[in-house]
Design goal:
The protein is an alpha+beta fold and 178 residues long. Helices cover 50% and strands 13% of the residues. α1 packs across α2. Belongs to the CPA3 antiporters (TC 2.A.63) subunit E family.
Length: 178
């Protein structure tokens, strides 16, 4: 039986001051990036940053996941490459004179545990070329693909592996890999 633990811990205590400050700074930087240097934008920005910080703690109150720094370093280039590759693939298909579609559904069983890692994985499926997560039931994911000829299964396994590294999970080996 694979050990698919993500080193998550139950979130019981209140948030610490350093964690609050880090989130406040990150959300303020995000606001500044989106709204620019106009000081009047902070009339809305300050309440938005405070509300977002508060909600981020409430929405993650059920569990915390230790995100691996090494996983982040590996996931960012993977994410950027897949995002651009996926966008280029969809654009190529949309602008093509020939019909380059062979749509269908692919069923996939994830080895990631319930919680943040699995949700992040499901939401990240759409960055893969021509894919969209359509349904999640337990550990079964149904993925819509624009082309059944694409290596969807391999791409999803690679994404699952990258998410496991990012979240500090171990998924074990798949039955077909043994």
């Amino acid at each position: 039986m694979p050990n698919n633990n993500c080193h998550s811990t139950s979130y019981i205590s209140t948030a610490t001051v350093p964690r609050i400050l880090v989130r406040l700074i990150l959300y303020a930087l995000l606001w500044y990036t989106l709204a620019g240097s106009d000081m009047l934008s902070w009339i809305i920005g300050v309440p938005a940053v405070l509300l977002t910080t508060s909600l981020s703690f409430k929405l993650t109150a059920s569990s915390r996941v230790n995100i691996s720094f090494t996983g982040i370093i590996r996931f960012i280039p993977f994410f950027l490459y897949q995002s651009f590759h996926g966008a280029a693939d969809v654009m190529r298909r949309a602008l093509s004179f020939r019909q380059l579609l062979n749509p269908g559904l692919v069923s996939y069983t994830t080895l990631l545990p319930e919680g943040s890692a699995r949700i992040f994985f499901i939401n990240s499926i759409s960055l893969l070329p021509g894919t969209l997560s359509a349904k999640l039931h337990g550990n079964k994911v149904v993925i819509h693909t624009l082309d059944l000829g694409l290596p969807v299964w391999r791409n999803i396994q690679h994404l699952e592996y990258q998410v496991a590294l990012l979240m500090g999970c171990t998924t074990g080996k798949r039955q077909e890999e043994l």
